[in-house]
Amino acid sequence: xxxxxxxxxxxxxxxxxxxxxxxxxxxxxxxxxxxxxxxxxxxxxxxxxxxxxxxxxxxxxxxxxxxxxxxxxxxxxxxxxxxxxxxxxxxxxxxxxxxxxxxxxxxxxxxxxxxxxxxxxxxxxxxxxxxxxxxxxxxxxxxxxxxxxxxxxxxxxxxxxxxxxxxxxxxxxxxxxxxxxxxxxxxxxxxxxxxxxxxxxxxxxxxxxxxxxxxxxxxxxxxxxxxxxxxxxxxxxxxxxxxxxxxxxx
Length: 250
Description:
The protein has 250 residues and is α/β, with parallel strands linked by helices. It has one domain: Alanine racemase (TIM Barrel), CATH 3.20.20. It has nine helices and nine strands. Strands 1, 2, 3, 4, 5, 6, 7, 8 and 9 form a nine-stranded parallel β-sheet that branches. Helix 2 (52-60) packs across helix 3 (71-84), helix 4 (103-109) packs across helix 5 (119-134) and helix 5 runs parallel beside helix 6 (164-172). The model has no long low-confidence stretch (mean pLDDT 94).
């Protein structure tokens, strides 16, 4: 399959600017409906399968929190964006499933990992972040969100809800990781309100033992309003910002 021809830079910037405004308006409206200030909800632009040029245009528009799903694609894009926008203070978020053998690599470029779903992965990231710091590639701990599996399906990634306390304790007790909260994806076929309600209760339980773990990353293009209603502090949006014309062979 051949990828579509890219839009001219000026046209693409206008597309992204309009989409960014629309998404921010959705967030603000959802916060108003929930009786929350819009400043409580952070937007992460998920740039997976889209080129670094799009990421660069987003930074020009003030969008500095960028998310990726695959380490190999992300590492190349991070490097390219550094060349395109060397002065942009981008915060990269790993939001997809992560294999332990990629931990050392991702620790070099990620400001935050939102998909830590096992004790073994947490330990690999702790080791990887320590190595990155020793090599001068990090200057602080790696922020971590524990990914919760709301329905317990092992094929979708995430830690079952009853395993969250052990995993959170592992992250919080590590030397190179900083526990910031929970992340989850609403399971297919499950009512998003039910899913995010369950997640909100899990987050409340987590905060009893880890009061600083206040981040709740939930909600994407199709369900961000419902997630905000249930307390999401971070929404991860790709399609509504960048469209569906990603690279044919990311």
